[in-house]
Each structure stands twice: as C-alpha cells, then as structure tokens.
Amino acid sequence: MAALVVVLLVxxxxxxxxxxxxxxxxxxxxxxxxxxxxxxxxxxIADLDRPVGVSASAGLKSGxxxxxxxxxxxxxxxxxxxxxxxxxxxxxxxxIPSGDLQVTVELEEAxxxxxxxxxxxxxxxxxxxxxxxxxxxxLLVAAVVWITRRRFEERFRWLWIxxxxxxxxxxFKVVSSFLAMEPVLEALEGALPHWLYIAxxxxxxxxxxxxxxxxxxxxxxxxxxxxxxxKDRAMTIGVGAGAFEAALIGLSSIGGAVAVMVGVQELIxxxxxxxxxxxxxxxxxxxxxxxxxxxxxASRLLVFYGVARGRRLNILLxxxxxxLIDAVAGGAHVAGLVGRVSTWWIEAAIVPxxxxxxxxxxxxxxxxxxxxxxxxxxx
Length: 379
Known about the structure:
- With 379 residues, the protein is α+β, with helices and mostly antiparallel strands.
- The protein folds into two domains: 24-120, Galactose-binding domain-like (Jelly Rolls); 141-367, no CATH class.
- The protein has nine helices and five strands; from the N terminus they run αβββββαααααααα.
- The chain has helices spanning 2-14, 123-151, 157-191, 194-223, 231-261, 265-277, 284-309, 312-334, 343-367; strands at residues 21-45, 52-70, 76-83, 88-94, 99-120.
- Strands 1, 2, 3, 4 and 5 form a five-stranded antiparallel β-sheet that branches.
- α3 (157-191) packs antiparallel against α4 (194-223) and α4 (194-223) packs antiparallel against α8.
C-alpha cells in the first residue's frame, strides 16, 4: 500500500509544472459616491493550444455592472452581471482564435470593488494540484496521529475530544463570521486610513478566531479537570484539534479534484490562477498544515498548563499565540494579497509562529512535572 501511494504521488507531482499564465489581472474601486463608468483592456492571445479562462468578481455595496470578454471579431465570448447579490462568475472558454481580445467593465451607479482575470488554464494541472495537495495533507495527518499514538500513553478518544472541541468552536465561529465579520470590516475600512484598516482588520480576524477556538478550550479546561491530567493528554487534545482541521482540508482538496473532473469551471479557473502566481502550488496546503498543527498544540498546551498550575499568563500566551497566526492569515485576505502574490510569502509569514510554538511545547513539557500543582489520576 505504501509503495502504491509513493508511485501515485510521483506520477501526480511529476506533472505539476505550471502551465497557467495570467494574461490580464485588473482591479478597481468606485465610490464613495455612486459612479457610472466603462473601462476596457486588451488581451493578446498567441498560443492557440492552451485553453483560456476568465473570472469576474465584485464586492459591490450598491449599483451593478457587467463584465464582457469579446473576441477578435467582436463576438461576445463571456459576460457576467455583477451586483450586490451576484458577486462572481467564471468560465473556461477552451482554445480560441489568436488575436486581440477585449475586456470591458461597465459599472452603473456602483459603489465597491471589482476584479477581472483572464488567464491560460489547464484542467489537468488543476486536477493534479488539488489531488496531490489533498493526498499529502492526509498523509501528514496519518503520520501525526501515528506518532502521537506511539509517543503518548493516552487513549484514542482524547484525539476525538480535541477534534470535537475544534468542531464546536468553528461552528460558532462560522455563524459569528456570517453575522459580524463583513459589517465590522466595512466599518473599520470606512473609519480608518487604509494602512490602519489593514492592521486593525487583521487583529480583529485573529481575535475573533482565538475568541472561539481558544476561548472554548479555556472554558473546557475549567469545566473538566481531566483534560489536563497530564501533559500527554493536553498534547493529545491539541493534536486532535490540529489534525482534524487538517484532515478536513485534505478531504476538501480531494473533493475539489472530483469537482475539477466533473468540470466545475469556477474551480478550474481559481486553481489555475493560484498556479500562475505560486510555484509548487500543490505543496502549499501540506506545508501550511505542517506549520499550523504545532500552533494548535502549543496554544492549547499553554492553556491547559496555565489552568493546571494557576498561571493566567500562560493562558494569555496561548490565546495570543493563536490570535497572531490567524491575524497573519486573515491580514492577507484583508489586504487583498490572496491571488495577487505568491502564497509562499504568506506561508513564510507564519513560520516564526510555528517555531515559537515548537519552543513553547518544549518548555511547557519540560516544566509540567517540575512545577507544583495538581496531577490527577487518569480518568
């Protein structure tokens, strides 16, 4: 079985050299007063054998607009209506005649942002990237769980308890995000200078995430003392949370591969766009999970250690550590960097927090049994 997995990965990774290429990437913003305008951009198509994809999206608060892509003879190849209720559309056009194409963005009494991308796409590449990323993440999860079971003398159910804590917290976080995230970010954007909005928005995203995920961990630690009966148990719960999140990401990536196979054009264009800006895009998800799982473990370990020893500073450190890494990831979205820069720059920004987490894990595990405090029997 292991040999089969290796052969499959070699086959999949071997074909992952990027064939995607962005031809047009234009963004704009109108407001704060409603505005009507038309903008046009030329696109030169020289490679007849490579399919072309187009993506149009907008975050309009009012008004509407339409994005059109016209062929060399003026024929309409793509049209997407954009308004506050319909914010995005994408299509793979296949191979089209060489020549000059034209992108037209027409806005009518609009307030908000818009984004148009035209690029060479590859369905085969999108399939290989999503499938490879998913398989590698699931292999990472399997390795982490196996090491945890071998290293720590705790029952398997504590991994599931960590996963359950994560799932409940994320459920409440998603509901809260749906209700409050956009209004809060819009209020910050309207009230602050752009650079300060990005800083405040990033902190808010990180604080919002930590409030639910680490907040629930703090509540559970005070309610159930058995959660911190030993450092091994505390570590196992943290691994359960991080590994469960990673497993869902791996499965969703494989689900994305299935969607590509059945021809979901929005996903093909989105993955091709990522490949055009990010080398080795298939490796991003497993590397990101390898960096974030230690943060899940360290933040929860600090909380359990703080509750067990009555050290509130450790609880605060666990909360802040988790808040900071989510602030970095959230800040990339707030600043509009996702899709504009290589994802590796975003991953590089979270490396210091992964290293800090490893240091925190080492310090806490060494101090756990040296510090006075209740050590409970296994229950």
